[in-house]
Amino acid sequence: MSKLPHIPTSIFSVMSQLANEHGAINLSQGFPNFPVDQRLLDITKQLTHENTHQYTPMAGLPSLLEKISQLTYEKYTRKTDVATEILVTAGATQGIYTTINTLIKHGDEVIILDPCYDSYEPSVLVAGGKPFRIALNEDYAPNFNRIEAGITSKTKMIIINNPHNPTGRIWKENEFEALETLLEKHPQIVLLSDEVYEYISFTQPHISINTRPKLRERAIIASSFGKSLHVTGWKIGYLIAPEKLMQEIKKVHQFLVFSVSSLSQHVIASYLDIVDFDAIAKMYLQKRDLFRSLLEGSRFTLLPCEGTYFQVVNYEKISSKNDTDFAKELITHHGVATIPISVFYEDGTDKRMLRFCFAKTDETLVAAAEKLRRV
């Protein structure tokens, strides 16, 4: 019997496969197609010849845990206990899955804000919990009246994603204040904050839960070196949580993956000494601005992009087809792959929106935009 009988094959796999079949430019799945930093490759080459190939401690390589703690303090002035509050995971998705399956029991309710990344609901279902999907506002801001109305005595977790995939929106100060006020009324609720795009923000600084004392003692924060350092295939992420929560999460983690790729941990621990996250954000800002400028002559309407490496567009001036069919048409007839936004909603809300990934070479973006301007 299936635990996920109504969960289809991921749209990301579907669109990438269709793009491969038709030789389309793939702006669908969220992975860069440009080379990683040569310094990272040099460190990797060096460390492959050293004693870096055996199990690390379950919670993570000690030197990497120290670097994460240092980074968290430098960026957010939060002091973390290396031994009890940080866990290296096999990507942020594994960290999110492990967190949910640790803290959610059969019948517990979890509030998820739509549109949302597609791993949240299946993780809740496998844990035996009940997802409660609540739509964001038209501008993709959280609607706290709807959120509060959705809270019951069984609500045990709220999941937020900031900067937001798929829309690229960043939460504002007043929204965190409203969240703090709300959660003060409901001490049984923990917060899972997906912050994998934390170092890719443009128009305003990313506000991390790490900076919110009222929230962080009841919050689990998921981060991703794969996203931040554009090495998505390495599948290296980490969680930060107070000891009382992390202690339980580690119990499940040790029997799920035990420990994470040793070589990758050694390399990232060294690379964190030299990498400049501000430079990475500037690089993605250049790509965002390039892609947006290239689409100015098209019939697509561009939505704001405050963070992440995704650009959402509206195509209602072009077609009345539903977004999934139009996305497939873009691949088969125009040679560009994208992701329809409706798949991020529980009820398939279709506002004729598409998500393009601009974490690509400038040449790829130019070639894709040339095709899109002809649509």
UniProtKB/TrEMBL annotation:
Pfam families: Aminotran_1_2 (PF00155). Its cofactor is pyridoxal 5'-phosphate. The keyword Transferase applies. Gene3D superfamilies: Aspartate Aminotransferase, domain 1 (3.90.1150.10), Type I PLP-dependent aspartate aminotransferase-like (Major domain) (3.40.640.10). Residues 25-372 form the Aminotransferase class I/classII large domain. GO terms for molecular function: kynurenine-oxoglutarate transaminase activity; pyridoxal phosphate binding. It comes from the Bacteria. Transmembrane segments: none annotated. Keywords: Aminotransferase, Pyridoxal phosphate, Transferase. One of its GO terms (cellular component) is cytoplasm. The keyword Transferase applies. Belongs to the class-I pyridoxal-phosphate-dependent aminotransferase family. This is Aminotransferase class I/II-fold pyridoxal phosphate-dependent enzyme.
